[in-house]
Amino acid sequence: MSTNLATLPAVSNPKAHKGMLRTIFGSMLRDPKSATGLTIFVIFILMAALAPLLAPYNPDAATFAQTQAPSAAHWLGTTAMGQDVFSQFLFGARTTLMVGIGAGLLSTILALLVGLTAGYRRGWLDSILNTISNVFLVMPGLALLIVIESLVKNASPLTNGLIIGLTGWAWGARVFRAQTMSLSNRDFIVAAKLSGASDIRIMITEIAPNMMSIIAANVMYASLGAILAESGLAFLGLENVQQISWGTMLYWASQGSATLTGAWWWFVPPGLGIALVGLSLVLMNFAIDQITNPRLRVEKRRKNRANTKPSRA
């Protein structure tokens, strides 16, 4: 995520705040890469939301022929236990996306609280919060999650998402702290102080809306990291593998020696789903990069002018 903290536009009224949200979505729709990412992401969200209606079978039902290749009856084949892979893929998308997006939102909220407070209040409180953030930053994330998972036996995907969200906020907090320190000396913040607005009101209604594009980018990358972390933990067997997610599908494919038996339809769909969701989040962030980094906007305008300039015969 490339950000230019000094050049972000400052807004200080509700209409401008709503305009920033419209700018983000408008940029996504105008940029081909971001529009493609948004389309892929929406498709997966709809698949997850409509899983009970789209799934042809009960994902837990082991009543079909074992390790059956894709066919008209089973679009993605069956597992070694006789379960329909397509039904598991749909319900696994629901679990994985819910955990990933939920953990991304939770870590972003924590990062915003810490970053805003540290960057605006400064002093001893900033020192304490910055020290805590540094401690979480130097800890290896996956190793920390594995240690916690070893203490929380047979954790559910939702529990893993909560753990991931509570341990993955430090990087975002550093970014929000730096941006808050940059904004806290702007004229509209000084005017809010002189008008008698409280510190909490200034942080919530004046500073936070000005970081909307950075907040959106943090949610995307935090969600991507949470999806990868949850899938990795499930693949290692560090969660309740009886619950269906893309990570547990990969776990059972590994346990069933799908790669050795040539049952590619068992492990390719969840792996491809994780990759496509990650790709969609990265593509959507291109639009946010153009909002937060004016250099990218200038380069894009130059390319557009060069492409539309009539060539001489």
Please provide the ordered H/E string of secondary-structure elements. Answer: HHHHHHHHHHHHHHH
| Corresponding CATH architecture of the domain at 74-279 | Orthogonal Bundle
Count every helix, treating DSSP H or I runs of 4 or more residues as helices.
15
Provide the gyration radius in Å. 23 Å
In short:
The protein is mostly helical and about 325 residues long.
Describe this structure in words.
This protein has 313 residues and is an all-alpha fold. The chain has a domain at 74-279: MetI-like fold (Orthogonal Bundle). The protein has helices at residues 14-30, 32-49, 51-54, 85-121, 123-138, 141-151, 157-167, 170-183, 187-194, 199-207, 212-235, 246-255, 258-261, 264-292, 294-308.
Topology:
Blueprint: H1 14-30, H2 32-49, H3 51-54, H4 85-121, H5 123-138, H6 141-151, H7 157-167, H8 170-183, H9 187-194, H10 199-207, H11 212-235, H12 246-255, H13 258-261, H14 264-292, H15 294-308
Helix pairs in contact: 1-2, 1-14, 2-4, 2-14, 4-5, 4-7, 4-8, 4-11, 4-12, 4-14, 5-8, 6-7, 7-11, 9-10, 11-12, 11-14, 12-14, 14-15
Structural key phrases:
single chain, 313 residues, MetI-like fold, mainly alpha
